[in-house]
Specification:
Elements (H helix, E strand, L loop, with lengths): L1 E2 L3 H6 L5 E3 L23 E3 L20 E2 L5 E3 L11 E6 L10 E8 L2 E7 L1 E3 L8 E6 L6 E8 L9 E7 L13 H7 L4 E3 L33 H11 L2 E6 L5 H14 L6 E5 L9 H14 L5 H21 L6 E6 L7 H7 L1 H4 L13 E8 L9 H8 L3 H13 L6 H4 L2 H17 L3 E9 L7 H6 L1
Parallel strand pairs: 2-13, 13-14, 14-15, 15-16, 16-17, 17-18
Antiparallel strand pairs: 1-18, 3-6, 4-5, 6-11, 7-10, 7-12, 8-11, 9-10
Length: 466
């Protein structure tokens, strides 16, 4: 979301709203791809209790012993004389969705020789199936679909089962060229920007080198590598939206350069691209914050806000790389520098980075940074922690209690002290503060995330009330 610079601008201009996409997972309701296998779980090593040496259980936990090709397909299963416990591998699709996915006929298309079996919500239609094209009948439940390889490359010729696709029957004529689920496209069409932070597995990302990035041919995109850049760009072009990418915190300069070049060459020229270094580098639950802390200590032998200054430094370097790659098209790049909304003052270390300036550099924000990004969450204190008993009492007061909850959400003050800043009024005050910060440095103010935090997952009664 972009914020107009004044109340008059707010009246004159439409608000530009984007959204974050959920990470790719077999249990996600997002279901963005026609080919459900692209959201399948990593291989689960298994054995049958009746087999010699099998200890039973759901998984033998031998993933590291799998013989995989570079795309993640299983090249072979253990011979009976091998020490491995597992004899088969499985994956899951549409798991834990309470049956909220399409029923009916699905095609399982594949290359190679071997045997596939289906269980949980799926059963094979033997009469309609043939080698390379199984037909399965699906009755959705919370269990989802289990797909199991019980044999592969039986003649040892290298023709193992690979290129598995699981598609609803009606999409067989078009799935090669129309890879995105039409229902998903309908849901996102109203947004101007899509932030791909979770599609890129940004938090704790292990990516750093370009040659180990996700590839279009990967068996599944529900991995630590995430979704290939080409697929994200295809979605942006298809929907006519501006993509927002997050560079991995360990990304090399070459990684960033190659990433920027591919975006420049493949993204429609009428689209902008937002680029941000990692995600919430001040959030200590994420490895990237610890990484920045160590980098700051190593460079300047300081703690305090050294991590934030190093984050500003690396964001500035990222911006320099992207702007140089785009050259005369540099205005298409929106370089984003983030800060923690609740930590007023931290933004000065990030934007101004005086320790780096002391080395002879410009302040970080002057490296063609375009936008200051904050979060816009509200309502999280309602029914959480010390306020839970108060809100529980409100839930028993009928309309009067509901009005109290709305008043707290809107104006605060009924659950002091932290509840004030968590109200819409408190959030609006933060917006004004950061708008002044951004304006003072000639930057846009944008929100990288935001929304209500009213759900209490540990108390269904409060969740229903809120």
């Amino acid at each position: 979301m972009q914020f107009p610079s004044s109340s008059s601008a707010l009246a004159a201009l439409p608000i530009s709203v984007g959204t974050n996409l959920n990470g790719i997972a077999d249990w996600s309701t997002q279901q963005p791809f026609i080919d459900a296998f692209k959201s399948s779980r990593s291989w689960i090593t298994q054995c049958q209790p009746s087999e010699p040496g099998c200890k039973g259980g759901w998984s033998t936990e031998e993933f590291s012993q799998l013989n995989l090709d570079q795309s993640g397909w299983v090249k072979s299963l253990p011979d009976p004389a091998d020490p491995a416990e597992y004899t088969r591998v499985s994956t899951l699709l549409f798991r834990d969705l309470a049956g909220q996915y399409p029923a009916g006929k699905y095609l399982v298309l594949y290359t190679g020789e071997g045997t596939l079996e289906y269980s949980f919500d799926a059963r094979k239609d033997e009469s309609s199936s043939k080698r390379g094209r199984d037909v399965i009948l699906v009755t959705p439940s919370d269990a989802g679909i289990q797909l199991t390889i019980t044999a592969t490359d039986p003649r040892k010729t290298g023709n193992y089962i690979r290129n598995i696709r699981v598609i609803p029957e009606q999409y067989e004529p078009t799935y090669r060229t129309q890879i995105f689920n039409p229902v998903f496209l309908e849901r996102i069409k109203k947004f101007k920007t899509l932030r791909f932070m979770d599609w890129m597995q940004t938090n704790g990302s292990e990516q750093g080198n370009w040659d180990t990035r996700a590839q279009v041919t990967d068996a599944t995109y529900a991995t630590a590598q995430g979704v290939p850049l080409e697929v994200m760009l295809d979605l942006a072009n298809r929907m006519g939206i501006d993509p927002w990418f997050n560079m991995p915190h360990q990304a090399s300069d070459l990684y960033m350069t190659n990433f920027a070049q591919l975006v420049r060459d493949r993204l429609n020229r009428n689209r902008k691209v937002y680029v941000e270094y990692s995600n919430e580098v001040w959030n200590w639950q994420f490895p990237q914050a610890q990484f920045a802390l160590q980098q700051g200590k190593s460079r300047w032998s300081v703690e305090g806000d050294g991590f934030a200054q190093w984050y500003g430094l690396r964001t500035a370097q990222m911006s320099d790389i992207w702007k140089q790659v785009f050259g005369r098209q540099r205005n298409r790049v929106v370089s984003v520098m983030g800060t923690q909304t609740a930590w007023r003052g931290l933004e000065n270390a990030v934007l101004d980075c005086p320790l780096w300036v002391a080395e002879g550099n410009l302040p970080c924000y002057q490296h063609e940074i375009d936008a200051l990004a904050i979060a816009g969450y509200f309502g999280g204190t309602l029914g959480q922690g010390a306020s839970q008993a108060t809100v529980e009492a409100w839930s028993n007061e009928g309309e009067g209690g509901f009005k109290k909850a709305i008043a707290q959400l809107s104006q605060g003050r009924l659950i002091p002290p932290e509840g004030d800043d968590d109200s819409i009024r408190g959030l609006t005050d933060s917006f004004r503060y950061y708008q002044n910060v951004a304006r003072g440095r000639g930057l846009q103010l944008v929100a990288y995330e935001g929304g209500q935090h009213l759900v209490n997952s540990n108390n269904p009664k409060l969740s229903e009330f809120l």
